[in-house]
Amino acid sequence: MNDGRRVLIILPAWNEADGLPAVLGEIKRQLPYVDTLVVDDGSTDRTSEVAAAAGSAVARLPFNLGVGGAMRLGYRYAQQHGYDVAIQVDADGQHDPFYIPVLLERLGEADLVIGARFDGEGDYRVRGPRRWAMRLLSLVLSRITRTRLTDTTSGFRACNRPMIEFFARWYPVEYLGDTVESLVGAARCGFTVRQAPVAMRARTTGRPSASPVKAMVYLVRAGLVLLLAMIRRMPPHLKDFAPGSPYYLSATTGPAASPAEV
Fold first, then answer.
1. pTM here?
2. What is the pLDDT of residues 48-96, one digit of tens each?
3. Considering only CA atoms, which of 11, 200, 203, 255 is closest in space to residue 93?
4. How far is CA 245 from CA 242, 250, 255, in A?
5. Are 160 and 253 in contact, with CB atoms under 8 Å apart?
6. Residues facing 10 on adjacent strands
């Protein structure tokens, strides 16, 4: 149930023409009350054309910026079009739309909800250095957010209107910025973070880029990203949208208002 809220599903997509029709079709069948936006992240195939033919709104980046750059554009689209909820969903079929109502329900007690793979739902497994990095991130970020988190690198996320306003103005585009740094930034500004258990599926197209060497590189880079996220100064104007601000109170207790109206 969306309880009258306007919900936008954002799908960052890079060369996903083969799988998008099935992914968009599944969302449309299961969730007829949501809108979708495919952010074509500089694809060289027919991603934009296929998404538009499937009935989705499309925003196209001229160059490949990565998930962070694509999601920053997606949040700006959600903010400019007045959506109450934005949900990030992978374009490769790994995220099951069945769990979106679960995220929406949990959003009633949080500003940002993470769909967690390692919380008792499904049998998704990660081993070796990549798993060590995920556990380290979850341990540290659980302390920062003051809640139990088991999957801080999940890209299956839902956020409310104040969080959309926040991310439309500040969203890291660097490596792991869309997951780790965005989560640290939200927590440091006082937003409430929670997780909901989800089962993750195998991707329907493309190949995973995992290997032992890449897993070790991931471990090192994840630690550096976390360190930078902790020491980087947050832009002071973001407090205008954080919990306790007049805008936050207006957006969460009554009809949505623009920041200029409060």
1. 0.89
2. 999 999 999 999 999 999 999 999 999 999 999 999 999 999 999 999 9
3. 203
4. 6, 9, 16
5. no
6. 37, 88
